[in-house]
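Good morning,

Attaching, inline, the backbone tokens for the sequence recovery test we're adding to the shared suite. The designed sequence is right after.
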């Protein structure tokens, strides 16, 4: 049994991506006091055979040079990297990872490995390994330089999740100036029969009700959503997409499917695509359950 020949996009897919990225960022912040971009710059500088120039790191990571420069400034303040003349071009400045930086990479890599084992634990062992392999293959396919050190596999996973999240947000903004959260809300409402309460949408997406409310406010201002009262209980307010909102959602689906096929699926084998498709739905359910338990525990 194979996944649909045409890559499908639904609320579960974006929910899994959102929660995987959230967990990735939280783990890196907790274990390394860095955000995802800063850690990727540190890791890529470590992977380089010699001190790396900002421009080379930006190319390897598909990031703007100014973004890499800001990350490098932060890493230097923490004494994780040091700036020095490039070995092959004394006029250029390069980054070299310090011993403290190497220790930080080891700590974050260990935390990420434990985090991934926990996240994938609801899946059967073979499927968990295949899903992680699919994400890593996608990430490795997007890397511009080879990874050879012990943390290379985790590096590919970080790249796969980070680039998927950044890419989807960028496409939504470019096509229709729709935020990631707004698109997730639209997908969920449409899948619920185009009639859903804020509380139900929030629970389904693992978001605070206030976040969903603000997203609906923006969608309503743009003419893509509307609120209506229940005929039997006037206190119950439902969200629905307008005709224009439904047309836009079709465009967003097609655009993201094309983007996903070009940016990620082309790096995967047919078996990895199947695993990614089916494991995604199981992960969405388990991640939402873990998110709800965490929220209740901290409330």
């Amino acid at each position: 049994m194979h996944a649909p020949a045409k890559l499908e996009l639904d609320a579960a897919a974006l929910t899994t991506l959102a929660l995987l990225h959230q967990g990735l960022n939280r783990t890196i912040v907790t274990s390394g006091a860095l955000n995802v971009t800063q850690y990727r710059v540190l890791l890529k500088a470590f992977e380089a055979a010699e001190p790396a120039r900002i421009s080379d790191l930006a190319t390897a990571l598909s990031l703007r040079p100014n973004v890499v420069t800001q990350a490098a400034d932060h890493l230097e303040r923490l004494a994780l990297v040091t700036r020095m003349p490039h070995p092959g071009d004394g006029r250029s400045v390069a980054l070299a990872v310090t011993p403290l930086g190497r220790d930080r990479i080891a700590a974050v890599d260990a935390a990420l490995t434990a985090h991934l084992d926990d996240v994938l634990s609801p899946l059967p062992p073979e499927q968990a390994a295949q899903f992680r392999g699919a994400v890593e293959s996608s990430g490795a396919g997007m890397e511009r330089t080879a990874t050879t050190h012990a943390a290379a596999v985790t590096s590919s996973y970080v790249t796969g999740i980070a680039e998927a999240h950044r890419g989807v947000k960028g496409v939504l903004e470019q096509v229709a100036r729709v935020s990631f959260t707004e698109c997730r809300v639209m997908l969920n409402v449409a899948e619920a029969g185009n009639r859903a309460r804020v509380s139900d949408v929030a629970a389904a997406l693992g978001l605070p009700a206030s976040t969903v409310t603000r997203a609906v406010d923006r969608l309503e201002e743009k003419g893509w959503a509307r609120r209506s009262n229940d005929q039997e209980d006037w206190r119950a307010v439902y969200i629905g997409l307008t005709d224009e909102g439904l047309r836009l959602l079709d465009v967003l689906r097609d655009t993201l499917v094309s983007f996903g096929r070009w940016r990620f699926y082309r790096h995967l084998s047919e078996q990895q695509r199947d695993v990614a498709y089916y494991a995604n739905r199981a992960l969405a359910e388990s991640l939402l359950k873990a998110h709800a338990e965490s929220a209740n525990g901290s409330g």
